[in-house]
Write a structure and sequence with these properties.
10 helices; mainly alpha; Arc Repressor Mutant, subunit A; 2 domains; disordered N terminus; Tetracycline Repressor, domain 2; 193 residues; single chain
């Protein structure tokens, strides 16, 4: 990239490039060089905006967590419409076909990234914590509308949905959407009214 050309929203450009690399090539291929090449910018651009690559990755995870929080409004608005299982299948499929599965691998294999995230999020992994909050809020709304049993354990259901969704997509070969639908229906079976 020639110098002197202003880049628009460099952070978003770099985050989107990282997500494409992560989804296409996996977490082991995610390097600062791969990100800047994918973004079509000089390598120094990343280092002008972030102290190091782990700082960039932590910011990427925070950004994608904020996107999950934005999805929460859409899911909450769906309460009382469609089916509970259908709404949850859609959101879990969207969540885990995004960068979420790759992010989990990054956190597991990058010690410095894990340390940085633990400092700002001592009670969990940011992306999955945001997803858990989103699902719990939705389940509470469905329970208040009478579509879930008053005795439904919202926390247990949320953990089961997030954990199962993650496992289905982490081991995927092909499209696990039908399997997600089956698992969601099974998890909710005793709680639906």
């Amino acid at each position: 990239m020639p110098t002197g050309i202003a880049l628009r929203d460099v952070r978003a450009q770099l985050f989107d490039a990282a997500e494409r690399v992560l989804l296409r090539d996996g977490p082991s291929a995610l390097t600062s060089r791969a990100v800047t090449t994918e973004a079509g910018v000089a390598k120094g651009v990343l280092h002008r905006h972030f102290t190091d690559f782990d700082d960039f990755l932590a910011a990427l995870i925070e950004d994608r967590s904020a996107r999950v929080a934005a999805q929460a409004d859409e899911l909450l608005a769906a309460a009382g419409t469609g089916t509970v299982a259908g709404n949850l299948t859609t959101v879990l499929t969207s969540l885990f076909t995004s960068v979420a599965v790759g992010v989990m691998s990054l956190i597991i294999f990058r010690d410095e990234l894990r340390v940085r995230l633990k400092a700002s999020h001592p009670n969990g992994i940011p992306l999955l914590s945001a997803a858990g909050t989103m699902i719990a809020s939705y389940l509470l709304a469905e329970r208040s509308q009478g579509r879930l049993s008053p005795s439904a354990d919202i926390d247990a259901l949320g953990l089961a949905l997030i954990g199962s969704g993650h496992l289905l997509f982490a081991a995927r070969s092909g499209d696990p959407s039908l399997e997600v639908s089956r698992v969601v229906a099974g998890i909710l079976a005793g709680s639906l009214r």
